[in-house]
Fold:
Amino acid sequence: DVQMTQSPSNLAASPGESVSINCKASKSISKYLAWYQQKPGKANKLLIYSGSTLQSGTPSRFSGSGSGTDFTLTIRNLEPEDFGLYYCQQHNEYPFTFGSGTKLEIK
Amino acid sequence: EVKLVESGGGLVQPGSPLKLSCAASGFTFSSNWLNWIRQAPGKGLEWVASINPDGSSTYYPDTVKGRFVVSKDNAKNTRYLQMNNLRSEDTAMYYCARRGTGIPVFDYWGQGVMVTVSS
Structure:
């Protein structure tokens, strides 16, 4: 199985700042990585797939980069609604596997 | 509007079965894969099952293979997760999530249903 190592586990930032979340796969997954946002009381939200393709409705302040084993989610100019949990997921092969999550909190 | 609603969760004893349902509206399952993903309390996400649109292909991770079965009822636009021989480590929030049309990942998720396995 492909192990996904996500870092950092926790991140604190202020509105207007930029942050980056990293995800490393235990073997090459080509470009096939997705990012999701999780917030209490809301359905999980797909942000980005295939490494850098923004899902319809995802604000342009979100961007994804990387290929092979190393990927990054960058959020520029943080908005209050961006705070929450973020997960990466490889969609290159079964079993699909997720990173352990990054909690983005308001500083 | 695409919507997924899970039901059927609850408290069960170890070794018991339980069947979850995922009802869809705003689209038909005959066009999309359906996946089940779970999240143990305070933990991360774990994919547990996938079924293709016509039900001819299903996939499971080793952690549930042989115990969990995903099935369909196209007439009701519903998918099911039959969970057998439940263990305490199966305690989790269970989500159903659609694989998008032309989008190879989970583009819509339900709100989840809680399953607790405890004596």
